[in-house]
Each structure stands twice: as C-alpha cells, then as structure tokens.
Amino acid sequence: MRTPPNRTRVAVIGGGQNCEHDVSLASAAAVTAALDPASYDVVPLTIGRDGTWRDRGLRPIGLCGAAQVLRGCDVAFPVVHGPRGEDGALAALCELAGIAYVGSGIRPGALAMDKWATKLVAGAVGITTTPGHLVTPATATHERWTHPVVVKPVAAGSSLGVTLVTQSAALRPALDAALAVDSRVLVEDVVLGREIDVAVLRRADGSLLVPPALEIVADGLFDYDAKYGGHADFRIPAPLDEVDRKALEDAALSAYDALGCSGVARIDFFLTERGPVLNEVNTVPGMTAHSQVPRMFAAAGMSYPELLDELVRGAHR
C-alpha cells in the first residue's frame, strides 16, 4: 500500500533483546499513538526478547523482512532503550541500509551507553563526574568496601542492577547483581546533592533547545520501582537560581556536544554545593507522554506530538 504523498511513512521500532524490553515497548506504543495520522503513516516493528523481528501484526518476519519494511519507509524511529538498541546498534543498521533515522548516531550512542566512556569524555571537556572506578569479573573478588557506594552495570538503564551499598556485607551481592546484567561494573561514591535532569533537543533546523530542568525527589535510590511504579515525584521546572540553572544548562550542552548527540538526550546530574556533577547521559530516554523528557518539553510549551514531529523532521542518515 502506497503512502499518500502528503504523509511521511515512519517505522517505529520497539522492544529489544535486553532487560529494558518492556520499557521500550511502552515508549514505542506511546510514540506510535501520538504521531499525527494526518502527517504520518506509522509502521510498528517489534524486536522480541529472543531477537526476532515482528511486523505490525506481531508476525515473525526476521531481520531480512524488517529490512524490507524499513526500505519502504521514509524514516526509522528507534525507541529501543539499552543494549542492542540505544548503544548505536540500530543506528548502525539504519546507516548500513541508507535509511534516515531519529536520534543519535553510532558513536554517540555507544559512548553514552557506556557509563565509563561517558565519564572519560565528560572529564576531557571539564565536566565533573561522580567519582568511581571500573570493576570486572576478574577484579571483583578484590573489591573491598570502605564507605557507602553505588554499584551499577556500565551499559544498562532503568536503574536495573543498581544497588546502594551502605555496609560491607552487601557489596558482594551488589556486584553479583550488576555483573548479572553486564560484564563490567561501576563502583561510584555516593554523591550528596539534588537529582536534576536536563534535556537537550537538536531541532530540525539545527538549533538546540533546552527546556526547563526537572528535579527528582526520591527517598533513597531512584530505582526501577520508583521510576515506573507511578510514585515518582518530578518537579518541573526544578526550583533553581540563575547561577545553578546556567551551570546545569552549560554542562548539559557541553556533554551533548562532546558525545556528538543528535535528536533528544537526557543528561542526569547531581547538583551539589560545588555545582553540577554528571551522573549519566541517555540518548534514547523514556518516551511515553509521562516520561521525564516529554514532560520537560511540555513545560517549555512543546506538546508531545510537537516533540515527536521535531524529532522525525530532524532525522538524519
């Protein structure tokens, strides 16, 4: 079936072969529902937990079938959080196939997904990051607890495998939980500060837009249940004085630029007495209408469908 000439055919890719599969399905469903049918012909594609590609009717079509579907579309809109998606894998598929796609390219996706690499890039441009070190299965047996730390997988999202360790006996189970998700782990100092998220969008015309920041008010660790259980306390705009607002915005823009991001990215900080401390960068942030990024842009006067429209019009090859 041919798309009418006034509509853009968009393949929305959700799911994924990783632990964020369900979150990605929710984001993809929201994007699919919100793209204006007057402007867009949406073609859903789903990647199963086993890696099987499925079409609109959830029939298995395999990678070859998915490639044929993608070639029949004007733009691909990947909404696969985590490994084999957000890490540049789907960007690579689109680039090899010569398909325009929404979001960051291969290198920024891979760098931002790797929290250790993100630290190195951020530090090179003068952005303060959470103090920490890298742990592997070979070095985990030598790890010793001396003070409260956060243990997290290097390349995962949605706070999966993340543990706040406040006593020695909890360190080994925390390392095991993180290593069950990824082969490399970060052990980071606990940073005392406010949790502030900043979003950056590269518009279709190339200009950058930073909406009002969001503050997460959490009792303890902002974990998976807090994020998706419907009880998160998001304050938008975050109450910030002009000095802190500008410091956060400048750091977010610097991180976005240094990593080479495109589309929209969410940059997460701790705001301390000494200024912003970078926690991590998300190049495929949650994209339901109630997720942090759409809510920040709503506070700037940009509706969810308008945000999606900017992203699709800004798609690149």
UniProtKB/TrEMBL annotation:
The keyword Manganese applies. Its EC number is 6.3.2.4. One of its GO terms (molecular function) is ligase activity. This is D-alanine--D-alanine ligase. Cell wall formation. It catalyses: 2 D-alanine + ATP = D-alanyl-D-alanine + ADP + phosphate + H(+). It comes from Nocardioides endophyticus. Its main location: cytoplasm. It comes from the Bacteria. NCBIfam families: D_ala_D_alaTIGR, PRK01372.1.
